[in-house]
Design a protein that fits this description.
Blueprint lengths: L4 E8 L4 E8 L5 H8 L1 H4 L10 E3 L2 E3 L10 E4 L7 H12 L1
Parallel strand pairs: 1-5
Antiparallel strand pairs: 1-2, 3-4, 3-5
Length: about 90
């Protein structure tokens, strides 16, 4: 369809990645693209109220308008605080 944008919606687990290519209308937001992709059918554990999203590794709000070729990434929740993890590694190294 003329005027549509091609974007990707991605979600990765340690064991597998889901990457869905979709076409969206100009003006489509990150949230709308995620809904349109139906990625939550594949990954019902996704909770956008708790999980961050980004485009090419940069965190963005759900109302960010997409551009041609954007890859929307849904980030898994952190299992551990990275700062605390570094502190623990530093203690073990002493």
């Amino acid at each position: 369809m003329v005027g549509m944008l091609e974007v990707e919606v991605a979600y990765a687990l340690p064991s597998r990645q889901t990457l869905l290519r979709i076409e969206v209308a100009p003006g489509t937001t990150v949230a709308a693209a995620i809904a349109q992709s139906a990625i939550q059918r594949h990954h019902p554990e996704i909770d956008l109220a708790k999980q961050a999203v980004g485009i090419f590794g940069e965190q963005v709000p759900l109302d960010r308008v997409l551009e041609q070729g954007d890859r929307v990434e849904i980030y898994r929740p952190l299992l551990a605080d990275p700062k605390e993890h570094r502190r623990q590694r530093a203690r073990r190294g002493r």
